Amino acid sequence: MTEKIRLCGIDEIEIDSKNIYSLNGGIEIGIFNINGEYYAIENKCPHRGGPICKGQMQNEIKANWNGPGMRIKESVSSVPTIACPWHGWEFKIETGEHIGDSKISVNTYKVIIENENLYVMV
Q1: pTM of the model
Q2: Residue 10 sits in a domain of what CATH number?
């Protein structure tokens, strides 16, 4: 059964920042404000259970290997990511998908905005 749980007011999370909230039952959820869009992921890395939401946020770095003796060409995309502080596993904030292996993901939750409040569907 899905439950709607209030986490905070929309003014409690500044743009390009995050907060972590503990729910009944021991689940921790990180809420991210990325350019005014809100996303929620579980604060538990699927690798070793690390506190992923305490990691560094950045945009995804893309790299192309051009062959032996040639420099790798890097660029920064517009896809926001979070890196687990324990081992550096990196995930897309919007989808929870692991960078580099789409079969691995962190749990994500639907965010609802009502009356200036943020709710998650758990």
Answers
A1: 0.84
A2: 2.102.10.10
CA separation for the pair 107, 51 (Å, rounded): 13
Give the pLDDT of residue 80.
92
C-beta of residue 18 within 8 angstroms of C-beta of residue 55: no
Domain of residue 17, residue span = 4-121
Centroid of chain to Cα 49: 14
Residue of 67, 5, 49, 50 lying closest to 31 (CA atoms): 5
Cα–Cα dist 109/92, whole Å: 13
Which residue type, as a one-letter code, is found at position 14? E
Tell me how many domains the chain contains.
1
